Amino acid sequence: MFSFSQNNIMNNDYNIWFLLIIIGQVSSIKASNEGIPYNQPSFCQNASWDLNATTFTDVNTTGLYPVTIFINRNNTIYIPNQSNNRLLVWSETNLALTNNISINSSNLFDIFVTETDNIYVGVSTSLFGINKLSLTSTSLHRIMFTCKECQGIFIDISNNIYCSMRYGYQVVKKSLDTTSNILTVVAGTGSSGSTSTTLNEPYGIFVDDNFDLYVADIANNRIQLFHSGELSATTVAGSGSPTATISLNRPTSVVLDADKYLFIVDCDNHRIVASNAYGFRCIVGCSGQGSTTDKLKYPWSMAFDSDGNIYVADQNNHRIQKFLLLTGLCSKFPTNDIVIYNSSK
After folding, report:
1. What's the pLDDT at 33?
2. What are the angstrom distances between the C-alpha of 179 and each of 144, 146, 153?
3. Are 203 and 216 in contact, with CB atoms under 8 Å apart?
4. Are 279 and 311 in contact (CB under 8 A)?
């Protein structure tokens, strides 16, 4: 593993540099995959984002410490306001709120919205689990009962819903096609640990179209990949990875693009990092914590819109930041360093 910038190219790396330029000349973003409710773009290998964000909404609307955001394929944006227990809904093209839903619960940890506008929320109540509501019926209906709070939610392409229990040290799932509460453990033993079968504060989760599960394992500073049907994981980023990746400090969220490259919210490093065919790189928030437009402070989650722009729940700045994809610069290096893994070295 090594890194270089545009002004520091070693002669023996010329072939890699040339290949990166050729690949970078393809379209920066393709259409999102069909059949999923969220945006999953495909980018050129050195796609970059404007390092200075615009604030989509701030503490006056979303309240204190926003932790989650969901954007559907129509670019409808869902953000919980934990200060007053409401779910806020926008159209990206209209900054005025289109819906403001009262939810009788505190601590709206995560949300997932289906193509039919069913909204699934992980909440903190006397009965843990996942609740369902819709834009037309805001009463909560509990569809999963768990022993601990569901702080990460995901629904796969076979209509299974997943719950990540941060302090239950497990990820479980059940089918939404049945009313039973039969849960299947898909990751973790229920006890904290740092082995391939254990987790320590699992939070953000993502399930790809092969039913492989990615887990942001906060306290172990790593991203774990559990292949479908397996309870032993491979570390694909962070501490303990069998191959050189990138150092993480309490990652809270992981998202995959259409080509299955990772985008990671590296919370305590106050940045977003991403992988591509050549390794990992920081893409936004790369100069430490702060409150200016180029910085983040304990970011918690992220989501793509249909144009490949990145929205970040910038938790301790009490705002949602929007980083624009720089589509015209795809054949050039980003302004920040790129980390490239060269298998010949």
Report:
1. 61
2. 9, 14, 18
3. yes
4. no
Q: Are strands 213-217 and 222-226 parallel, antiparallel or unpaired?
A: antiparallel
DSSP track, 38-104:
B---EE-TT--B-SS-EEEE-HHHH-S-----EEBTT-EEEEEETTTTEEEEEETTEEEEEEEEE-S
Q: Which range has highest mean pLDDT (95-109, 291-305, 322-336)?
A: 291-305
Name the strand (E) or helix (H) holding 299: strand 299-304
- DSSP per-residue codes, 306-323: TTS-EEEEEGGGTEEEEE
Q: How far apart are CA 201 and CA 85, in angstroms?
A: 24
Q: What is the DSSP track for 128-171?
A: -EEEEEESS--S-EEEEE-SS---EEEE-TTSEEEEEETTTTEE
pLDDT (0 to 100) of residue 175: 96
DSSP assignment of 210-240: T--EEEEEGGGTEEEEE-TT-SS-EEEEETT
Do 299 and 264 contact (CB within 8 A), yes or no?
Answer: no
CA 161 to chain centre: 17
Q: DSSP code of 173? A: E
Q: Report the C-alpha gap between 2 and 139 in whole angstroms.
A: 53
Instruction: Give, for 263, the enclosing helix (H) or strand (E).
Output: strand 262-266
Q: Look up tokens 């610069």; give the residue.
A: 329
- How many residues make up the chain in this entry? 345
Computed over every residue of the chain, the mean pLDDT equals 84
Best CA proximity match to 317, nearest among 292, 287, 282, 286? 292
* Nearest alpha carbon to residue 272 among 298, 236, 292, 241: 298
Q: Rounded to an integer, what distance in angstroms lies between the CA atom of residue 188 and that of residue 195?
A: 10
**Cα separation, 267 vs 241, whole angstroms:** 19
Q: 1-5, 135-139, 266-270, 321-325: lowest mean pLDDT where? A: 1-5
**Pairing state between β 29-30 and 42-43:** antiparallel
Query: Token digits for 243?
Result: 């191959």
Q: Residue 290, SS3? A: coil
pLDDT in the model for residue 177: 94
Distance CA 247, CA 238 (A): 5
